[in-house]
Amino acid sequence: MARLTNRVALVTGAGRGIGRETAKLLAAEGARVVVNDIDQAASSETVREIADQGGQAIAWVGDLTDGQTPERLIQGTIEACGSLDILINNAGYVWNSAAHKHSDKQWQAMLDMHATVPFRLLRAYYPWLKQAVGEDRAAGREVCRKVVNISSVSGTDGAPTQVAYSAAKAAVVGLTKTLAKEWGGLNVTVNCVAFGPIATRLTQTYEGEPPTINVAGQDYKVGLAKGQVEQMLPSIPLGRVGQPKDAAGAIFLFCIPESDFVTGQLLICSGGMRS
């Protein structure tokens, strides 16, 4: 039996990689999924793949770093689906350089994307959430809703060239633990998954010049040099880099009824990698 039947899930950054695999897994388990991404084509492809596997999904395209977009996304999800039971704060990108080369713009961009965006989404979610919980309890229903925030081992252990990204991902852990305490009375679990190396376009292996991705019209260098990967693998007991499906599975653990009494927790999904 599907574990998430009649649940509505919002997954940010679901056009590719971890977000796409998470959206597909939630849909396969019965959830109706709202696919958010800044890229229209990527969002539509995720929705198509979900439909092909027999699931339900809609796309909601928007740049979450626009100050008004998080509230519009929450409202749009509730208007389209009538509820919001699972919120996955996954959207993000990297902008790396040594700390002494970080500009103020670079520092702020990483904090905006990885810390401020989740905060704004959760703040926008609260008014509807409080009302829904009151209505549930008046009707004799007890519904456990779920928030899963995405961090990184860069945020838990630090990482060279990622001072702003690491700081923002560390902030996500604090956000998670605080809201777990504030929202426990609403029967909302708030947990966090911190990823080690997962094979996405942000961590693609390269030789020579690093590849780039384009976010909102600006190019950013991404990827791991082949030598970096070779040095890293011995520190991973499972002996491999993770795949997006591995990451989606870790997120899924916090979405299912079996984790209804688990909140305020940080799960490291890194294949056991030692820092």
Summarize the structure in words.
The protein is α/β, with parallel strands linked by helices and 275 residues long. It is built from eight helices and eleven strands. Helix 1 packs across helix 8 (244-253) and helix 3 (69-81) runs parallel beside helix 4 (104-138). The longest helix is centred in the middle third of the chain and has 35 residues, at 104-138. It is globular and about 60 Å long. The relative contact order is 0.14.
What would you say about this model in short?
This protein has helices at residues 17-28, 40-52, 69-81, 104-138, 153-157, 163-183, 226-232, 244-253; strands at 8-11, 32-37, 56-61, 86-89, 145-152, 188-195, 205-206, 212-215, 218-221, 224-225, 266-269. By secondary structure, it is of the alpha/beta class.
SSE sequence, one letter per element: EHEHEHEHEHHEEEEEHHE
Radius of gyration: 18 Å
How many structural domains in the coordinates? 1
How many alpha or pi helices? 8
Q: Name the CATH architecture.
A: 3-Layer(aba) Sandwich
Please report which band the strand proportion falls in: under 5%, 5-15%, 15-25%, 25-35%, 35-45% or over 45%.
Answer: 15-25%
Q: Which structural class should the secondary elements be placed in?
A: alpha/beta
Mean pLDDT figure: 94
Low-confidence stretches: none
Q: Give the overall silhouette.
A: globular
**CATH fold descriptor:** Rossmann fold
Give a quick account of the main beta sheet: strands, pairing sense, barrel closure.
7 strands, parallel
Give the strand tally.
11
End-to-end CA span = 39 Å
Q: Write out the strand line-up for the largest beta sheet, numbering strands in chain order.
A: 3-2-1-4-5-6-11
CATH class: Alpha Beta
Helix content: 40-55%
CATH superfamily: NAD(P)-binding Rossmann-like Domain
